[in-house]
Give the backbone structure.
Amino acid sequence: LQYLHQYVAYGATHSSKDQYDAPKCHTETRTQLRSDIQNWIKVDEKETGIMFLQGAAGAGKSCIARSVCEEANDSGLLGASFFFWRYSSDRNNADKLFTTIAYQLAKVNKELGKQIAAEIEQNPEIINKPLEHQFKKLIYEPCLSIPKEELRVKAIVIDGLDECTDKLMQMSILRLLAKAVRNDKFPVGFLITSRPELHLQEIIDTKEIIFATHVISLSHIQSASHDIKTYLQSRFSSILNDQRFKLALKSVPRPWPSPETIERLVHRSSEQFIYAATVLKFISSHDHNPVSRLEIVLGIKDGDNDSPFADLDLLYEEIMS
């Protein structure tokens, strides 16, 4: 597996530093959705082998994906993960998608590891083969060859498919995975997250994919405002209890922030978790006073257009200045 090791995009895995330090769901947010996903993962005979979670930028898809990975990994059901990111040369394309997934599968199951290693030893050029061939030889056939009770792995998570810069490749990946899960004997399901891109929706609606895919739209789930409020309250509580801020917060009236301030931040978030996460990251910087930083955020004028990102844009402008 040392050879395969060279073709792994390390920032793409859920256990990498890039993902470990990134935001995850608060334990009391997105509870029903995360429960539904975990229940889907646990089922051996899945009605649909692909769960496609779509939502606008900033809606919290990656947070959900990271949390699902952690929970499934803790229960021994996660096979692998890959987090696309448009700003990384390793992660904005599919060149290392299946080699990264195969390497993780080889690590979580010894029998899979033996088969994947044997395939690479016999055919080291597979690294340069088309993705369809890589998937078949490094993932599909090895997973099929092991009895389900010995495999245990039940899910692979692919986050941010839309961040793969090649739209044709995005569609090819969906076709490939749908073809695999249409085989009832294939034991692994795929959780995929993406923005609701038209070209992806069109291919999902085709006969070859629609019956293999369960689409969940975050915009159709109950309002995220309650979850964002819970998240803000929890994180501000952590800031209050952080010894590094003890002096700065010593004379601040409690509760801090006030309920009115929390509600104002929830309103400004426009149900986008990314706004709340950005605010908290800005305020919790250990090099600055959190009270002053909160005042800076509150001093930014409200966005004056209909975009849900208007306030976020203004926040970014303030941070960058």
About this structure: The mean pLDDT is 89. The longest strand covers residues 78-83.
